[in-house]
Design a protein that fits this description.
With 700 residues, the chain is mainly beta. It contains 6 helices and 28 strands. It has a domain of 170 residues.
Amino acid sequence: DLNTIPNSAVRAIEVLRDGASAQYGSDAIAGVINLRMREDREGGELTLSYGGRDSEYSTLVGAAPAGATWSAPNVLKRSVNDGEIFTVGGWKGFAIGDSGFLTISAEYKEQERTERGGYDMRRQYPLLNPAVATSFDPREQTFNRFSQWYGEPEVQQATIFANAGIDLDESRSLYGWASYQDRSALSAGFQRLADDPNGRNVISIYPDGFLPKLQPDVTDYSLGFGSRWEMGEWDMDASVVYGYNEMMYTIVNTLNRSIGAASKTSFDAGGFDHEQTVFNVSGVRSLEVAGLASPLNLALGIEARQETYSITAGEPDSYRNGGVLLNGAPTASGAQVFPGFQPKNEVDESREAVGAYIDLEANITEQLLGSIAIRAEDYSDFGGNVSGKVAARYDFSDSLAIRTSYSTGFRAPSLQQQFFTTTSTNFVSGVPFDVTTFPATSSVATALGAKPLDSEDSTNVSVGLVFRLGEGASLTFDAYKIELENRIVLSENLTSAAVRTFLTNQGFVAIGGGRFFLNGVDTTTEGLDVVFNYPIKLESGGRVDFTATANFNDTEVTKVPTTAQLAALSPSPVLFDRNNRLTFERGAPEDKFALSVSWTQGDFGVTGRATRYGDALQAQNVPTVTAPDFLMSAKTLIDLEARYTINERIKFAVGADNVFDEYPDPIPPGLNSTGAVAFPQLSPFGRSGRFVYGRVTFGF
């Protein structure tokens, strides 16, 4: 989680875009992000920043009920000023002995929520006379119909990061780091109406209805320690790293409808935690090999990993059914919006993994650089994997090179995917049925055709051209094809009458169905990345840097999962529906263009960025005339920032992201029956509008 590292702790970021499982294992199926941390022995900085949303958006409004005493235009414009973010952070370097360093970085952040909901035209209150459909409560005319929290959450977080190192002598050194973060957030579900048609409100508790809210509290910490030394011709490195993350849920401004008027309004819903310990030993050396144009670089290493995952149950009122009826029928169990984890959901699982790799690289000729890597892994839960990578680069001249690679990769199923489970209770004709997210190895999931999760496997082929155009300018083209097999997805909710009957016949009583993680989706992605860089030194002493990028890609789902057990039912449930398939294929833009121009002159600097996102599709399972697939049109966002260095210790910056306040296209009322969701969930650039900010940095 990159949020657990203060910005001030990072010196540089390196990105390897190719799949790199052959060098780094399961985590690197899509590439590697390497953070180089500050290693300062002295000095420091303090940075304060403040910004917020200054925006206006339009939402499409649906029809009011017949005879309604309230109204609104078909298109409603709304001005908002929210989403304030205040951040204070900094770093300080300390000397340890003659060569050592200790750099401590810290950050505190407060983020207010944004709200971009639509206008809710539904009837909110009970009719004054149930026999008269138009006997509306006068409060309907004054109720705030922008009642949803549809946007970014409230966040408070405090983070500290320490990085240290020291040379023991010319050939031995020690290094280590430690981090800690405490984060609290607040987000919301959907509004429960005062006269909720699904019977989810108790009017004596919430006479105006209520907006249930989720408050996750996250604790995250890590500790790493390592040593580097020389052993003959080898440069050795050994390290051990421990990390822990815990998320506990409190559900507030809610109720348990089945307890009735005696219900609490805040619940401890339980949570989960994950910890991981990694031990690594690696060595690097150079070998003189006859026939090669350069020494052969040899790297090899071993890694051992142990990780655990557990779920903790919430308090009983967060999940139980209190037995209070509504119109003679049972009501939903547990806290509204997020029923707590039940004791039967609790898990405490662990696994171990061991891996070893070897990596060779050398200039075969003066122009041809080649590399090969192979890594073997063995996991205690799902088995083993061997991944490999072959890459080459040929320089035709100082101005032209070609590069290519072929690699296989894998991603191990996470413990969370294997063991996450949660249960809610629904009533069908007054009979309670548990609807559960099952582990794939559970007896119910197995009866429905689930199998133990296996790894996702990839094949990645790329070829690229590099043009060096002189004066620092460069142009690159990289084409790629990525085939992914056995992608892990969450099945649809399997709760039809046919499923319930099947489970009952299998001996599972009062099980209303559910869902589970499974392998089975295969995809093929083909794409092209283009990058152009052009730095210009001005006669005045200033500098202008141009960077232009383009990405084109196309993804096709080539296989979807099925099970024989479900295929035999009538009607046969769908494991992976049309909506999910099209989300893989068209849920993200197939093209994206970006242009960045940065000018510096003495103490002044200005940066402008333009990013164009191509169109994307938010699909429906069964599109209709009134609820069709929704195509989001292409949009271009502009960001600007101006900087001024007042003196060697003080720097100031002001800027705006999304200067022209672009939004995704609003969704039509046919896709927004509650009025709550004003914009498509799959917007590639969010839905919060313009953000204006200022930043000041003090050096010392």
